[in-house]
Structure of HTH araC/xylS-type domain-containing protein:
Amino acid sequence: MLYLNADWCLAQLHHLPADSRLHTAQPQLQDPQLFQLYQQIITSIIQQQTTELPALIIHMLHALPLQSTDAKPPRATSRQLFSRLSNNLQEPPTLDTLAQEFALRKETLIRTFKQDTGLTPASFINMARIEYARHRLRAGDCIADVAYQTGFADQSHFHKTFVSYTAATPRQYARNRSISDNK
């Protein structure tokens, strides 16, 4: 997994037409050329060849699929669900509660949200929690406090989820390190 700062990526694509954006219907791509670029980026990171890294990443960004913003916007249900989940990371509503609020079956709610965002509601919650945790850890917050603030049941669950999304423990991330620094 490779985490790229979204603001930096957008700045690198500033020359694109205003009505274009990066797009993939699925949160994963299966493209041999993109995978080869990804492997080159990872190799550069591991070998600490940072001078060529920005150029490789920019090359990969330009190879990603683009879509005109004329594309169908997310449905109102997905926008409302996105907002509802984003505002309640510590104690997100249950799927049963959401289905009742939106007057939809749970399966329909999940399918609609995934079609519009590429993620299930549960995956979105985890990603949003980890994104929030990343910012709090870099700001110097205590790991236990961040685990609580992000709504994880305990610090162990937070630790495991954080590592799966960032490839670094919360402490390593707060110190600006990664698992590959463990020697």
Q: What stands out?
A: The chain has two domains: 6-68, 73-183. The two ends are 20 Å apart (CA to CA). Residues 6-68 form one domain.
